[in-house]
């Protein structure tokens, strides 16, 4: 799997006034921009060709931050979503980017963390790329599944039902904002009709794979964290989570330079140079330290 999309659009209205002047996905989660989290999620899956979709107003900010991705060994392109017309519209806007092969979609405000997360992602991406399955969704146990899209799987992990904010959920697995699809997703997204709220729903795309018997639900259970950052409280919770782990363990979560180095996208000299450009901060010092340790 080589292609990925980050959907970082929307108005962020639940975070007003923070997001009146800046994209939600450019806000800090403790020590780095929120967008670093979905970006490194795709990188950990082995994806280097990435399309970032956002509003015309916010795209210049992402371009200033990430550029074309070359310094991280990536190819980052940009596309506009003028209005929030649904998650599945990402595959309409990004059709030429992903057409002809498997791809991943991650939402710009979702944070994933856990031991062996990268190896699990690469394994599931390989399952899609090989044709063993057409779609992999990621389910996370929550106390209040009635607030989410909920997936139910059989003992083999095959998806058997999807419900959107059900009154009586059939499982406690919320569908997270990370999706792996085969090449059919472009045609499927183009074929669905807008919902009652006028959006192209990702749940409708997933239901097509479900009806084909080609959808699986990967459980993110004990040992994993899934956080979204749509409210002031959840944004603060995410920052606290990152702060505690980083300060306790001495490592940085979603450090794009470190992930690029460990994935083999760049070498230690390039990583050190990226750190040196930020040497006035603890983050830059950490990146240089990672490069020096890698050399050793």
UniProtKB/TrEMBL annotation:
Gene3D superfamilies: Spore Coat Polysaccharide Biosynthesis Protein SpsA, Chain A
Name of this chain's protein: Glucose-1-phosphate thymidylyltransferase
EC number: 2.7.7.24
Catalytic reactions on record: dTTP + alpha-D-glucose 1-phosphate + H(+) = dTDP-alpha-D-glucose + diphosphate
Cofactor: Mg(2+)
NCBIfam families given in the database record: rmlA (TIGR01207)
Source organism per UniProt: Pseudonocardia kongjuensis
InterPro entries (UniProt xref): G1P_thy_trans_s (IPR005907), NTP_transferase_dom (IPR005835), Nucleotide-diphossugar_trans (IPR029044)
Gene field: rfbA_1
Domain Nucleotidyl transferase: 3-240
Family: Belongs to the glucose-1-phosphate thymidylyltransferase family.
């Amino acid at each position: 799997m080589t292609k990925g999309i980050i959907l970082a659009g929307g108005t962020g209205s639940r975070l007003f006034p923070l997001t009146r002047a800046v994209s939600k996905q450019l806000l800090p989660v403790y020590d780095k921009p929120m967008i670093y989290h979905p970006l490194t999620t795709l990188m950990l899956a082995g994806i280097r060709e990435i399309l970032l979709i956002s509003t015309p107003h916010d795209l210049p900010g992402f371009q200033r931050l990430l550029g074309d991705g070359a310094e991280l060994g990536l190819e980052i392109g940009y596309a506009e979503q003028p209005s929030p017309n649904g998650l599945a519209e990402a595959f309409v806007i990004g059709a030429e980017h992903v057409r002809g092969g498997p791809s991943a979609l991650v939402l710009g405000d979702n944070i994933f963390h856990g031991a062996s997360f990268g190896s699990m992602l690469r394994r599931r991406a390989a399952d899609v790329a090989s044709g063993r399955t057409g779609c992999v969704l990621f389910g996370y146990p929550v106390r209040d599944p009635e607030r989410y899209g909920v997936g139910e799987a059989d003992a083999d992990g095959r998806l058997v039902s999807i419900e959107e904010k059900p009154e009586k959920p059939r499982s406690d697995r919320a569908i997270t904002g990370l999706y792996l699809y085969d090449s059919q997703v472009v045609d499927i997204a183009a074929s669905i009709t807008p919902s009652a709220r006028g959006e192209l729903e990702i749940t409708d795309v997933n239901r097509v794979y479900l009806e084909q018997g080609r959808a699986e639900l990967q459980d993110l259970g004990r040992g994993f964290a899934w956080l979204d950052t749509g409210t002031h409280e959840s944004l603060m919770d995410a920052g606290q989570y990152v702060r505690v782990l980083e300060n306790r363990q001495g490592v940085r979560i979603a450090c794009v330079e470190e992930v690029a180095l460990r994935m083999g996208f760049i070498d230690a000299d390039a990583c050190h140079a990226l750190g040196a450009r930020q040497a006035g901060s603890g983050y830059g010092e950490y990146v240089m330290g990672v490069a020096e340790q890698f050399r050793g």
